[in-house]
Write a structure and sequence with these properties.
The complex is a heterodimer of chains A (about 290) and B (about 325). With about 290 residues, chain A is an all-alpha fold. Chain A is elongated. Chain A has 11 helices and no strands. Chain A is about 70% helix and about 0% strand. The two termini of chain A are about 15 Å apart. Chain A has a single domain, classed as MetI-like fold (Orthogonal Bundle). Chain B is globular, with a radius of gyration of 24 Å. Chain B has 13 helices and no strands. In chain B, helix 6 crosses helix 8, helix 7 packs across helix 8 and helix 11 crosses helix 12. Chain B is mainly alpha-helical and about 325 residues long. The chains are: A mainly alpha (about 290), B mainly alpha (about 325). At the A-B interface, helix 4, helix 5, helix 8 and helix 10 of A face helix 1, helix 6, helix 7, helix 8 and helix 10 of B.
């Protein structure tokens, strides 16, 4: 439901545009941003630093306890859990990020197009994308996996397709309002093309709320991909994202082993971090403070 | 109930039917048209053209896609859903034996989660800003932002492994007593409830707070009514529409949750069937399960809208 609150978001007037940077985010927002940055670095640098297979040499201990050699214990094959989680970040964080960027990018582009074009284009796009939302997201993902299998690219595309309509709907409701503003009419009278109006007049004014929406959408994608992997239909072994890590180590659940707790915590930290950042975005706390 | 509302409702329900038709087209397109030639896949690269043509004719792949779609949809409407590629049993039979189990699970979850969520949500709204509200809100945010499978696994860890109150697997035999059925259903229902309650509670809280902030509530306070009276007799009747909307929408989250929960607990319902069929690429079963889920989702979403329309006094007295 939090997505719909964005539709009512007041659009920052151009004069009051704030410089993005230090003073805007509160301390909680910065903590969230730090966690996000840490995971992003882990996702990019991790695969370079850590040997790919991580197969243990010598004596193997399955579901080993937390120790100096294995900071997060070992998994069901005796592999170092910390390395597994960091390697998993690549799939969970990067794949989700790519799909989210695609979903929001396509959604916003179509929404801008719908708002500046005539009634027919708008109606067709809106109805068409609304139809996609009539399929529950997990169900859509399952159908796509059944049809096309679950390679990493397929999963990214699937998640992107699923979340385009949501991004479109919010961006459109914002863009339609902007499109009715006088300065857009002025630009139009001046003879500017559709592309210019979309990019220069409307986009800057919906960027703020859409950034918050992007964060939420990222959380949804992370949860969706993790759930798919947990079902065994997402990232396939030997690769593993955090959802698959929970799945493959679920046997250690009864001992409360770190092997199953660590990936779970990783997912929770990622989604909570995004929520922290969004809730502390400039202008947003003021709106929600009254609640 | 007047003509205006009836017309609105008819429009909304008609729209839902059109959506369902469109959904069926999408499902068919994704599962049967886009992946390419199923006959080729079954026979492999070095199949002779004759064998391929024969199999295509046998599978009905030699007719154009729109015609195949019409045929498939017609059969589906008549209740003939074809045959499973894996078990070679009629799909309708398999579904028929599993659907009641899923409905039982969903029904029990709704029965428990709706009263709990409404009570907590209304209390949180009334006592907003207190420690109670903070605790409830924080809890629900935490549950919403972690995936369902974690909620379910944590529930197993707590109730089945640590406390040993409930069995961790949900198997139902045909001749089990009611007590045993309820015991084995407890864990799945509990996990599903966690997710649903969190969603519903947040929406209910928001809906009630919306009303409590309205000027008329201030008026009620000024006239000296007690807090209980203010909430029960003044704010709640106005919040019925949004709350009913919230309930129906939250119940549609059941569909996502049920997929995870049935898999974790190995519960022989229709969602487990769907996941298994996806893994085995058993397209006829996948198609039918998907259609059932989408239909249920559309019913709930439409119901949410209908509640909103019927409960809106402005529309009622036009």
């Amino acid at each position: 439901m939090s997505t719909t609150s964005n539709t009512h978001a007041a659009v920052t007037p151009p004069g009051a545009r704030r410089r993005p940077g230090l003073p805007a985010l509160g301390p909680a927002g910065w903590i969230g941003l730090l966690i996000l940055a840490a995971w992003l670095i882990a996702a990019i640098v991790g695969p370079i630093v850590i040997p790919q297979d991580g197969t243990p040499v010598g004596e193997v201990q399955i579901f080993g306890r937390v120790s100096a050699a294995h900071w997060l214990g070992t998994d069901y094959l005796g592999r170092d859990m910390l390395a597994r989680v960091i390697l998993g970040a690549r799939y969970t964080v990067l794949v989700a990020l790519v799909s989210t960027l695609f979903a929001s990018g396509i959604g916003i582009t179509l929404a801008l197009l719908a708002s500046v074009s005539g009634h027919w284009v708008d109606a067709c796009l809106s109805r068409g994308l609304d139809t996609l939302t009539a399929i529950p997201s997990k169900m859509f993902a399952l159908i796509m996996v059944a049809a096309f299998g679950s390679t990493v690219w397929m999963l990214a595309i699937t998640a992107a397709v699923i979340y385009v309509p949501g991004a479109f709907r919010i961006a459109r409701s914002l863009a339609v309002n902007i499109n009715a503003m006088d300065y857009v009419t002025v630009a139009r009278t001046r003879g500017e093309g559709i592309g210019y109006i979309m990019r220069q007049e409307i986009l800057p004014n919906i960027a703020g709320p859409m950034l918050a929406d992007l964060g939420l959408r990222f959380v949804y994608v992370v949860l969706l991909l993790a759930s798919l992997s947990f079902l065994g239909l997402g990232i396939q072994p030997p690769d593993a994202d955090w959802g698959s890590l929970v799945r493959e180590n679920i046997g250690a659940l009864s001992d409360g082993s770190m092997a199953v707790v660590a990936p779970a915590l990783a997912i929770a930290s990622l989604t909570l971090a995004v929520n922290l950042v969004i809730d502390n975005l400039p202008g947003r706390s003021a709106r929600n403070g009254a609640k | 109930m007047n003509l205006f509302i009836l017309r609105l409702l008819a429009r909304r329900i008609g729209l839902a039917l059109v959506s369902l038709l469109a959904v069926s087209a999408i499902v068919f397109a994704i599962t049967a048209v886009l992946p390419g030639d199923a006959a080729q896949e079954q026979l492999g690269q070095d199949a002779t053209p004759e064998a391929l043509a024969a199999l295509r004719a046998q599978m009905g792949l030699d007719v154009p896609a729109p015609q195949r779609y019409a045929h498939w949809l017609g059969n589906l409407v008549r209740g003939d859903a074809g045959e499973s590629l894996v078990t070679h049993m009629p799909v309708s039979e398999t579904i028929g034996s599993r659907l009641p189990l899923s409905l039982l699970l969903a029904g029990l979850t709704a029965l428990i989660s709706v009263p709990v969520a409404l009570t907590l949500g209304i209390l949180a709204a009334v006592y907003r800003g207190t420690w109670f509200d903070r605790a409830v809100s924080l809890g629900s945010v935490a549950v919403v932002s972690i995936p369902e499978f974690l909620v379910a696994t944590l529930a197993v860890l707590l109730f089945a492994v640590q406390l040993r109150w409930l069995p961790a697997l949900a198997y139902i035999g045909s001749d089990d007593s009611w007590e045993k059925v309820l015991r084995s259903l407890a864990m799945p229902v509990l996990s599903l409830c966690c997710v649903i309650v969190a969603q519903m509670l947040r929406m209910t809280r928001a809906a009630v707070i919306d009303q409590l902030k309205a000027p008329y509530v201030e008026m009620v306070q000024l006239k000296g009514a007690s807090a209980t009276r203010m909430v029960l007799f003044h704010a709640l009747p106005n919040a019925v529409g949004p709350i009913a909307n919230a309930v129906a929408l939250s119940l549609s989250y059941l569909l996502g949750g049920v997929i995870i929960v049935e898999t974790i607990f190995n519960y022989p319902g229709i969602a487990k069937l769907m996941v298994d069929s996806v893994a085995q690429r058993d397209m006829p079963v996948v198609q039918v399960c998907a259609m059932i889920f989408c239909a249920a989702y559309l019913v709930l979403v439409t119901l949410a809208d209908v509640c909103g329309i019927v409960a809106n006094p402005r529309l009622r007295h036009r």
